[in-house]
Amino acid sequence: MEKKHSLNVFFLTLINIATILSIENWPFLAAYEFSSLFFLGLTAIAFFIPVSLVSAELASAFPERGGIFNWVKAAFGQRLAFFSVLLLWISNLVWFPTLLSYFSVSFSYAFAAWDPNPLWLHFLSIGLISASVVLSHKFGLAVMSRISSWALLFGTVLPGLLIILGGVYWIYTGQPSQIECSWSALWPRLNGMDDLVFLSGVIISFSGMEMNAMHACNVDSPGRNYPRAILFSGTIIFLFSLLGTLSIGVAVPREKIDIVSSSIEALSHYLHFFGWGSLLPLIALGIGLGGVGGITVWIAGSNQGLLAALQQGDFGFTSLVDNGKNYSFRLMGIQAILALALSTIALAMPDMNGFYWILTALSSQLYLCMYLLMFSAAITLRIYRPEVKRPYRIPGGTKAVIAIGGLGLISSLFGFGISFVPPSQIQTGSLLTYESFFLVVWLSIIWAGFFYRRSRSEVRV
Question: Which fold has domain 9-459?
Answer without folding.
Answer: Amino acid/polyamine transporter I (1.20.1740)
